Amino acid sequence: MNRTLIVTTAMALGVFSTAASAGEGTVNGAAGGAVTGAIVGGPAGAAVGGVAGAIAGTLLDSPPKKVITYVEEQPAPSEDVVVQQKIVVGEPLPEAVTVTPIPDSPKYAYAVVNHQRVIVDPSTRTVIHLVD
């Protein structure tokens, strides 16, 4: 009974999250985390999963358009760093990759790795966005 209630509540949060575009990452992360937590650990798992998902959703929100545009307009570096591991949103870049701060946006930095421009959190080097 409790599991059904928690899963239903989490699903409702997911449906209503489309209306809240400003907090989209947080709400979707919370709903997804709650559903996963409920399946794995019941009610306690739903609570923990919801909090963890909300934090992850907040951290991985897409950067503002002006940041993406800035990265797209930068000249290609003379040397492109190539690494063996796949570059994935939510994972940190290898230390061999040089991260360049973005002026006027201290929350963001960028790098070019494996012929791909990526936007990262400069404090953790975590990939936030892959630029097309």
Secondary structure: elements and pairs:
Elements: H1 2-16, H2 24-59, H3 65-73, E1 100-101, E2 109-113, E3 116-121, E4 126-130
Antiparallel strand pairs: 1-2, 2-3, 3-4
Our estimate of the beta-strand percent is 5-15%
Average pLDDT number: 75
- Biggest beta-sheet profile: 4 strands, antiparallel
Structural class, please? alpha+beta
Q: Could you give the count of β-strands?
A: 4
Sequence of secondary-structure elements: HHHEEEE
Given as residue ranges, the uncertain stretches (5+ residues, pLDDT < 50) are 7-24
Ends distance: 45 Å
Q: How would you write the strand order of the largest sheet?
A: 1-2-3-4
Share of helical residues: 40-55%
Radius of gyration over C-alpha positions, nearest whole angstrom: 18 Å
Global shape = elongated
Specify the number of helices: 3
Count of domains: 2
Describe what you observe in this structure.
- This protein has 132 residues and is of the alpha+beta class.
- The chain has 2 domains: 2-59, no CATH class; 65-130, no CATH class.
- 45% of the residues lie in helices and 14% in strands.
- The protein has 3 helices and 4 strands, in the order H-H-H-E-E-E-E.
- The protein has a 4-stranded antiparallel β-sheet with strand order 1-2-3-4, covered by helices on one side.
- Helix 1 crosses helix 2 (24-59).
- It is elongated, with a radius of gyration of 18 Å.
- Mean pLDDT is 75; it is low at 7-24.
- Residues 1-22 form the signal peptide.
- This is DUF1236 domain-containing protein.
- Pfam families: DUF1236.
